[in-house]
């Protein structure tokens, strides 16, 4: 119960690792605001949390729209009175394309959600945390933001931007007792990677490129977030914790070629 009586707002928490964050934080005593684009899905996850005997509220919205973010934060404050923890988990990676084939609207879609959305949520919640005397912000980046991968240009740029955003906010907001950190997962068995998990040959090929020879588990990323949200990380600020099984230290050229070849034909630029 490390987070007892704390209020956590988790964006993109209706499925995948976002849902794991929501349930994991609830199990540690936090009251959880579940967020997603679809209200019914957010209500379903909030219901699961309430069944654990923990308070939860469902709020739908688009993190790339400032009016939605403002409303989301206000609803959270109205319901709980404060926000102690923000996890910026919402993100998209809708296509795999060579740089010369990316359309403007495709670029905008990724950057708007993955980078602009993180900033808007940090700014809106950060203002409240300044008023209340502190808080914890955890931004979900990616090892792809460190490595870079062909076919994933907008995604990689957005996740690299999240790490830079994290460092600057940590510096600016330290005076207000707000700690801002990030997590950069590698290949995790779930979330955006779900489509590849039923392809044994692909999973085998990818895991051979990771020194630990396996994909990460969602609960391993949740444990890092719980650490950063708790008092155990009281002297950690402005850093990105990389959880990739050693992938960034051992990175063959074209690491994601296997994924690109199998998914390129099914993907299209919006």
Helix content: 40-55%
The number of helices is 9
The major pleated sheet works out as:
7 strands, parallel
Unreliable stretches, pLDDT < 50, 5 or more residues? none
Q: Could you say which structural class the secondary elements and strand pairing correspond to?
A: alpha/beta
How many structural domains does the protein architecture include?
1
**Topology, number of strands:** 7
Mean pLDDT: 91
Q: In the CATH classification, which architecture applies?
A: 3-Layer(aba) Sandwich
Shape: globular
Strand content: 5-15%
**Rg, nearest Å:** 18 Å
Protein architecture, described:
By secondary structure, this protein is of the alpha/beta class. It has one domain (7-266): Rossmann fold, CATH 3.40.50. It has nine helices and seven strands. The protein has helices spanning 16-27, 39-50, 66-80, 104-132, 144-147, 153-173, 200-207, 218-229, 257-263; strands at residues 7-10, 31-36, 56-60, 85-88, 135-140, 178-185, 240-243. It has a seven-stranded parallel β-sheet with strand order 3-2-1-4-5-6-7, sandwiched between helices. Helix 4 (104-132) links the parallel strand 4 and strand 5 (135-140). Helix 1 (16-27) packs across helix 8, helix 3 runs parallel beside helix 4 and helix 4 (104-132) runs parallel beside helix 6 (153-173). The radius of gyration is 18 Å and the shape is globular. The termini are far apart. The model has no long low-confidence stretch (mean pLDDT 91).
């Amino acid at each position: 119960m490390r987070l007892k009586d704390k209020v956590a707002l988790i964006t993109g928490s209706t499925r995948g690792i976002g849902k794991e964050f929501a349930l994991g934080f609830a199990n540690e005593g936090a009251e959880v605001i579940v967020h997603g684009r679809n209200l019914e899905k957010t209500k379903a996850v909030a219901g699961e949390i309430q069944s654990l005997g923990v308070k939860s509220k469902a709020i739908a919205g688009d993190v790339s729209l400032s009016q939605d973010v403002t409303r989301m934060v206000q609803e959270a404050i109205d319901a709980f009175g404060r926000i102690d923890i923000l996890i910026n988990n919402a993100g998209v990676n809708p296509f795999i394309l060579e740089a010369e084939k990316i359309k403007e609207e495709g670029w905008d879609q990724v950057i708007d959600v993955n980078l602009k959305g993180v900033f808007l949520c940090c700014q809106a919640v950060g203002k409240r945390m300044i008023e209340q005397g502190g808080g914890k912000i955890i931004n979900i980046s990616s090892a792809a933001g460190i490595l870079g991968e062909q076919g994933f240009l907008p995604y990689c740029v957005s996740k690299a931007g999240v790490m830079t955003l994290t460092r600057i906010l940590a510096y600016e907001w330290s005076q207000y007792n707000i700690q801002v950190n990030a997590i950069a997962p590698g290949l995790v068995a779930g979330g955006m990677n779900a489509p590849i998990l039923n392809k044994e040959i692909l999973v085998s090929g990818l895991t051979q490129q990771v020194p630990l020879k396996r994909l990460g588990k969602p609960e391993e990323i949740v444990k890092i977030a719980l650490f950063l949200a708790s008092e155990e990380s009281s002297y950690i600020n402005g850093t990105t914790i990389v959880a990739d099984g050693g992938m960034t230290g051992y990175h063959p050229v074209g690491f994601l070629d296997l994924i690109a070849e199998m998914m390129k034909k099914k993907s299209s630029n919006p």
